[in-house]
Amino acid sequence: MQRNDTIDIQPVRLLDTNFMWRVFFVFAALAAISVAISVSGRIVGRSIAMAGHTDDKTMAQIVIGNNVIETPKNTIRFADARRNGIAQKLDLYFRWPDLAGYSDAARGDFNHANGKPNILFVSFSQRMTSRDMSGRFAPIYSSLTAATDEPAPAGLKTRVFTERSGYENETLYVAERPGRDPYVVRCLAADSGVSLAPCERDIQIGDDLTMSYRFPRELLAEWSALDAAMIKKARSILRTGG
Q1: 3-class secondary-structure state, position 200
Q2: Spatial CA neighbour of 196 closest among 56, 27, 57, 77
Q3: Nearest to 177 by CA among 113, 233, 240, 224
Q4: Which of 27, 81, 125, 146 is the most exposed place for a label (fewest CB within 10 A)?
Q5: 186 - beta bridge partners?
Q6: 3-class SS of residue 109
Q7: pTM here?
Q8: What's the whole-number mean pLDDT along residues 199-218?
Q9: Do 214 and 187 contact (CB within 8 A), yes or no?
């Protein structure tokens, strides 16, 4: 008897086109998400590394009263101020002595990681008093302070504030300038706490504008060069109307 063995062959089921497209779209979406995560990670990572600074040297024009301050964005301290427009106040910062803004090469200086304080903090605002700090010495500061023998660098004289002056933990430094009001600067006392820029001076400039700048105590010895450089810098970025 002849035996006929038969084998059942099941038909191969082909994947339909719709299923293939679904698989394609899933992998495409995963790839897009991966790219987005990578890009956003680099952006966030750079933002963290910049720590609020920017190396963007694009010029910004800020209007305060009848003055326009035109300065690179990398000299503007706060991100929300790095735009053209009207403001009540503008805060800048510069590295001494080149008076440059933030850059990758200067990262250590601006992050105060180099151990040598050399960052200047500068503010422009509309004038609130009729006299600047030098002009206030004779009518105000002279009666609120007393001369001392405490040593001071570069020809400066030290004056201490009286208890009722309202300037606790501050010291006044004064230098005579023939034919001009004296140079005057206030500094926090050395034991008043940690401050990167404990010395402050203000100057009237532009059209009813005040420039106030703060600097490290270590730069007191360079007060004359510093003051001249700050006035020159202010005039170079200031456009006054009228």
Answers
A1: strand
A2: 77
A3: 224
A4: 27
A5: 172, 200
A6: helix
A7: 0.79
A8: 97
A9: no
* DSSP secondary structure, 33-92, as one string: HHHHHHHHHHHHHHHHHHTT------EEEEEETTEEEEEEGGGBSSGGG-SSEE-SEEEE
pLDDT at 48 over 80: no
Instruction: Tell me the C-alpha distance between 72 and 61, whole Å.
Output: 9
The total of other beta-carbon atoms located within 10 Å of residue 32's CB is 10
- Cβ neighbours for 169, distance < 8 A, ≥ 6 positions apart: 188, 189, 192
- Residues paired with residue 64 on neighbouring β-strands, in sequence order: 67
Tokens representing 66? 């009848």
* Beta strand pairing call for 59-64 and 85-86: parallel
Q: What is the pLDDT of residues 23-34, one digit of tens each?
A: 666 767 666 666
User: Do 72 and 59 meet the contact criterion of CB atoms below 8 Å apart?
Assistant: yes
